[in-house]
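[job 0412] stage=complex_fold ligand=magnesium ion status=START
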Amino acid sequence: MVKLNTRNIKRENETAVGYLNNLDEGQTENMENGYSEVKVEGLNFFYGSKQALFNVDIMVEEKGVAALIGPSGCGKSTFLRVLNRMNDLIPGTRLEGRVTVHGEDIYDPATDVVKLRKKVGMVFQQPNPFPKSIFDNIAYGPRIDGQKNKAVLSEIVEESLKGAALWDEVKDRLHEPALALSGGQQQRLCIARALAVQPRILLMDEPTSAIDPIATQRIEDLIRDLCTDYTIIIVTHNMQQAARISDNTGFFLQGEMVEWGKTSQLFTKPEDQRTEDYITGRFG
Ligand SMILES: Nc1ncnc2c1ncn2[C@@H]1O[C@H](COP(=O)(O)OP(=O)(O)OP(=O)(O)O)[C@@H](O)[C@H]1O
Ligand SMILES: [Mg+2]
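[job 0412] stage=complex_fold status=DONE, emitting C-alpha cells
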C-alpha cells in the first residue's frame, strides 16, 4: 500500500476523502509525485507565423470530464490536438511551453509519439470508421500492437464494444461493414476503436455535432459512464451539453484560456466578464 501524501490534493476535505478511496496504486504514486493527468504551462502555438494559442495554463485532474467551449476559431481543436501531438502532422507548426501527461513531457524529443497517441486517444467530429468490418475496425489498433491471437482479439473487440455501449446492437453482425452502421453507431464504434488500445485519456472534438439528438443523448450517457475509468476532454459548441456532462469547463477566446474551473461555477458565477458575456449569449 502506498502511503498517501495529501499535500497535493487541492479538493475540499470531503471530496478528497471520496477521491482518495477511489485511487489505485499507480494513481496515488502520481499524486505523491505531484502529477496531474494533463498539465499545460505557458503554451503558445503557431501555424507558421500565425499564433493560435496564447500562454495557456491548465491542469486536468484524473478521470471525469473536462469541456472546452468558445466561439468558432478560438483554438479549441488546436488545443486538443496539442495534447496528443496531432498537430505534428501539420507542416509549419510550432509550440512553446510545456505539456505533460502523467508528469511526462510529451514534447521531449525522446517521447514515443505512437505510444503517446495510444495513451491519449482521439474521437473526431465526423465518425470515421475504416472501410472494414466492425470487428476489424476495433481489432485494428491491437493488431498493429502485434496482437495476433484470435481469442484475445475477440475478447478485446467484445469488451471495447461493450465499453462503448454498442455490443448489443452489433454482436450478431461483427463481420459486416462498419460503414453500414448509422451515424450514432459509427461514432460509438469510433469510441470503441479508441478504447481497444486501452487509453487513459480520451480527447473528443465535437463528437455529437454530426449526429441526431437521440444518438447524442446515448453518447452523452456513454461519456458519463466512461469518465469513471477515463479522463475525457471534450470540445463542444453546445453549452448545455458542457453543463450536462462535464465536471470542469474551460472557456477559450481568441486563443486565450479566459477561464477554467468547475462547470457549476463557470456557468453560474463566472469570474471573467467575457465568460459571462459568452455564456449569456452576448457574443459568439
Ligand atoms: N491547419 C491549419 N493551418 C493554419 N491555421 C489553422 C489550421 N487549423 C486551424 N488554424 C487556425 O487556428 C485558429 C484556431 O483554429 P481551431 O480550429 O483550433 O479553432 P476551433 O475553436 O476549433 O474552431 P471551431 O469551433 O470552428 O472548430 C483559427 O484562426 C484557424 O484559422
Ligand atoms: Mg474545432
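The pocket of adenosine-5'-triphosphate (ligand 1) is lined by residues 47, 50, 52, 70, 72-78, 90 (CB under 6 Å).
[job 0412] exit 0
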